[in-house]
Design goal:
Blueprint lengths: L1 E7 L2 H12 L6 E7 L13 E7 L1 H19 L5 E8 L2 E8 L2 H5 L4 H14 L8 E6 L6
Parallel strand pairs: 5-6
Antiparallel strand pairs: 1-3, 2-3, 4-5
Helix pairs in contact: 2-4
């Protein structure tokens, strides 16, 4: 969960601008109006509105990464796969269950590492983010 306090003209404009700048769908955001602000008289004494935004980044990244992995596997020809997600110590673990486990893991986990590399590049998490996305096949990495 991340929190932001943002100021602007009106609460709705602030939220719309924030969502556009951060490229976040509004379903992962809740906001609370701290100060409605005021227009003042002829622009004099104008006071900006202020809102507090609560952003559920974990849920957003979890759904986004699952969708990207599913699309990638489908385009690679793996149509019958099931992806389960788990959150453990700021790690989003995407576990792939399929009849092609040996093929998806590869020799010395080279294919699995390649899938992990592609996911890291496609997700593009911030350097400051404490989250990480881990791709696993049939709980191979746990073993």
């Amino acid at each position: 969960m991340r929190f932001f306090e943002v100021e602007g003209d009106t609460p709705k404009l602030i939220l719309a601008q924030f969502l556009k700048e951060q490229n976040i769908p509004d379903e992962y955001v809740e906001y609370e109006v701290i100060d409605e602000g005021s227009k003042g008289l002829f622009g004099l004494g104008k006071k900006n509105a202020k809102i507090k935004i609560k952003y559920n980044d974990i849920e957003h990244i979890k759904r986004k990464s699952r969708m990207i992995l599913s699309d990638t596997l489908e385009k690679a020809g793996f149509n019958d796969v099931h992806i389960s997600t788990e959150i453990n110590n700021n790690k989003i673990i995407l576990n792939i269950e399929s009849d092609y486990t040996e093929l998806l893991i590869g020799k010395h986990a080279q294919t699995l590492d390649a899938i992990q590399y592609l996911m890291d590049k496609m997700i593009k998490l911030d350097e400051n983010s404490e989250l990480s996305v881990v791709v696993d096949v049939a709980s191979y990495r746990q073993r």
